[in-house]
Amino acid sequence: MKKVGDDKLRRKVVSFLLVTLMMATITPVHADEVSEPTTAATEVTTTETKPTTTEKKETTHHKKKTVKKDKKTKKKNTKKDGKKKSKQKEKSKKKENKKSTIPMPKRAVKKKGCDTVQKKIVKMQSKIKKLQKEQKNIRKEIKKENNKKEALQRFYQQYPTEREATMKLRGQKITPLTKISEEDDALRNRLFSLANTFHDDQLRKIASEYVFGVRDLNFEDLLNEDDTIDLNTYLKGKYIAPTQNMQIGIKNKDQEIQKLKKQIKEEKKTRFFDPKNVNSISNITVDDAKKMLSGTQLYPEAEAFVKAERIHHVNAVFLMGIAAHESAWGTSRRAREDNNLTGYGVYSDSAKGINKPSKEEGLLATAETLHERYLTPGGSYYEGTSVADVNKHYCVGNEWAGAVVGYAYQLMNKLN
């Protein structure tokens, strides 16, 4: 019986132990008593979870860096965007300016051998030929006079003194009672010879109707003046004409010829307008300027434009273009009241501008200012020699240069 009871006790103890072991595995209070395999598993899980915390730290740190980078990039982007916007604004402004401004052509215009110039040259050449012909005729007359002088000198050689010539050449009309001596016939023959030399019918008539030589001084006083003739006075007055005036005439015509030749030389020069360089001389003449300005209120000042170019070396066509634009071809109030054709100094209605006693003086003053201040290096407004360069300080806005050049081209076209 005892043995059986001992076995029962043993069984109860074993079952108790098994129950306790099972409870130990289930309850977390006794987690420290868990077997090694389970702890290893937990260690693995814990070691795997630890990196997640570090990763979070790293990601947060990375976020801070990215935030800083984002701020920098945003600043850079804003700067870039600002630059782009400013560039776009500048481009839009330029486009607007281009739209609002008249385009400034840069083509240089040359007029050489145009119809207008050729006609003037032909006209002057015909004048020269006419003057040369007149000179030739005068020289022929001088030669005739010299021949007459020589012939008269030979005629007078027979009279030793002037008094004797005066006495011998006093003639009276032949009457039926007149006796003609051999001396009278000899003198008559010499007079006929002079008449043939001089082609003088009147002298031939005198030789045939008169006898010469005073035979009776007392009787001479009784003669009617209509019946007597002083051949000495007649010959010297008609045939010893002064050739000095003729020589002066030749000299005057020669001066006129030289003047025309000089004008032809000027006419043959190329008329020139270059909007890139208004210091270049146009070579236009006063006649050219009159043709270019015909039909406008600027016509009376044609010579003044050419004079301004000659004195101050500013292209005359450029000056005409300024005047056409600023004064509406000479009709503006400033042109009429202030003699200001170029609008210089008129920045507003109340501005004084140039006020001169005459339009010519106003043009000369503008040309002088342009030359010294705008077109000469070192000048207070010097930017270059083009019309666009002058525009920068001459007038507000960019339309001025294009308008002036347009008028200059229009004026040059009139020389065709």
TrEMBL record:
Compositionally biased residues, Basic residues: 59-97
Keywords, alphabetical: Signal
Residue ranges constituting the Mannosyl-glycoprotein endo-beta-N-acetylglucosamidase-like domain according to the UniProt record: 303-360
Chain residue ranges for the region called Disordered: 30-115
Gene3D superfamilies: 1.10.530.10
N-terminal signal peptide: 1-31
Compositional bias ranges of the Low complexity kind: 36-52
UniProt-recorded name of the protein: Glucosaminidase domain-containing protein
Source organism: Anaerostipes hadrus
